[in-house]
Amino acid sequence: MDHQSGHLFFDPSACHGNMLFLGSGGDSVFRGQRTMLSMEDNSKRRPFFSSPGDFYDEEYYDEQSPEKKRRLSAEQVHLLEKSFETENKLEPERKTELAKKLGLQPRQVAVWFQNRRARWKTKQLERDYDVLKASYDSLRSNYDSVVKENEKLKSEVVSLTEKVDTKETTTEVVPISGENLVPPAEAASQSVNVKAVEDRLSTGSVGSAVVDDDSPQLVDSGDSYFPTESDYPGEAMQSEEDDGSDSGQGYYTHVFAEQHEEEGEALGWWVWS
DNA sequence: TTGTGTTTTATTGCCTCC
DNA sequence: GGAGGCAATAAAACACAA
């Protein structure tokens, strides 16, 4: 008889106090014990009762220190796992049935399920954390890109503004008052020149005197650095209140998707399992 | 062999539901 | 109020490096 399967789930010596192992001879605990003898052979592990008779084996009994926990056998765990996969909650009938089948106390089965649910929850939290972290990392990287782009655009604005200023200062502006008042006809002519520059600036027309052909074109004169809806026809500009239940295709995603596509990256937006 | 960290089994106390 | 669930915790069993 193989006593080396290493898992004993019942310790008769522990039947005292408020411990719930067994109060009596341990009827159901021993049921099915013989079917659990084909566990892995692990000589490092200690023997367990192979039959109810062993329970009364004083020689063995004396070796056991009181209140020792016993691990469930691999077969018991396997069955419990299978049962857990089916349903992670335990109705009373199922608990009794499983307990009988495994030769355990119903309480032990209940405790096992309790602990198993706790382990599952922990794992689930870990998974959720990983998903959230991936999502955060992606957002963070996108945010950094936007900040960079923002800085770049700002410096462009500064450089263009400087160009405009240079143009304006080279244009002779007529003083409104002073000794050197110009004749009305001449003043009108100068005023037209200035206005023409302003007009070109405001319309952003091609061939502007300010914007060189080979310079980056500032297309939009609005306040925002971001395009309007017309820039991406047919795409909704998403607000922050969106619940994320759609594909999340706002401007940011559009831009970032393009950006990441160029970099050969796959965007993992809100990939919930 | 031993020290240490992890896993598993079990208890306790509190909470919710019927 | 009893049953069952969960969180926190204890403690035994186990794994593993030094």
What does this protein look like?
The chain has helices at 27-30, 52-55, 58-63, 74-86, 92-102, 106-170, 184-203, 251-262. It is an all-alpha fold. Helix 5 (92-102) crosses helix 6 (106-170). The model is unreliable at 1-66 and 177-273 (pLDDT under 50). The chain binds a DNA duplex (18 and 18 nucleotides) through residues 9, 18-21, 44-46, 67-72, 89-90, 92, 107-108, 110-112, 114-115, 117-119, 121.
Please give a quick description of this structure.
With 273 residues, this protein is mostly helical. The chain is 49% helix and 0% strand.
Distance between the ends: 48 Å
Beta content comes to under 5%
| Share of helix, binned | 40-55%
How would you sum up the major sheet? none
The best one-word shape is rod-shaped
Low-confidence stretches: 1-66, 177-273
Number of helices: 8
Task: Specify Rg, calculated over alpha carbons.
Answer: 40 Å
Order of helices and strands: HHHHHHHH
Number of strands: 0
The average pLDDT is: 56
- The helix-and-strand class reads mainly alpha
InterPro entries: HD, HDZip_class_I_plant, Homeobox_CS, Homeodomain-like_sf, HTH_motif, Leu_zip_homeo
Main location: nucleus
GO biological process, one term: positive regulation of DNA-templated transcription
DNA-binding region: 65-124
